[in-house]
Amino acid sequence: xxxxxxxxxxxxxxxxxxxxxxxxxxxxxxxxxxxxxxxxxxxxxxxxxxxxxxxxxxxxxxxxxxxxxxxxxxxxxxxxxxxxxxxxxxxxxxxxxxxxxxxxxxxxxxxxxxxxxxxxxxxxxxxxxxxxxxxxxxxxxxxxxxxxxxxxxxxxxxxxxxxxxxxxxxxxxxxxxxxxxxxxxxxxxxxxxxxxxxxxxxxxxxxxxxxxxxxxxxxxxxxxxxxx
Length: 228
Prior knowledge:
two-stranded antiparallel sheet, alpha+beta, about 35% helix, 8 strands, Barwin-like endoglucanases, 6-stranded mixed sheet
């Protein structure tokens, strides 16, 4: 008949302490692993993301508009600036949601047309002069005839403004109707200019949705026509 060896009190205590040490070490490793910070998400910039470039351009256009209003203020400038500051705040929210660098701005994607000298004689039939008639808020109006393509080579982005489909421009006065066609998907929208911006044409959110490609905030290949 075999005899079992019983462990003494000291050996039992030593074994219990060893087990507790191992379990505690494992718990520490698990806690350290679970508390480790996840790798930081890579922030995209306008240089390597079409979405980020579109948002940066929209931000830059609004910043340029505010700068123009501050440089040439009138009775409505403060209200316009407050509106565009709210638009900029919304664009920054979109930049963060899209993983873009928040506050990244790209101005001058659609440079203003240089002012041309006035003709020596008035144009026949009441046609607008080379510099265009004075538009809303002191901006130069477009001298193009209805149906003529304008803003050649311009990219189109959004102003970030809400409301019914509309456009803003530094070339055309309020009431001008512009047709914008996205050549990448052949979608078009015809909208009226309702406000001033720092570019030839900016579409508000509703108008941009009608011609955009999913996930993009910039139309690189656009045809813009003055239709009324």
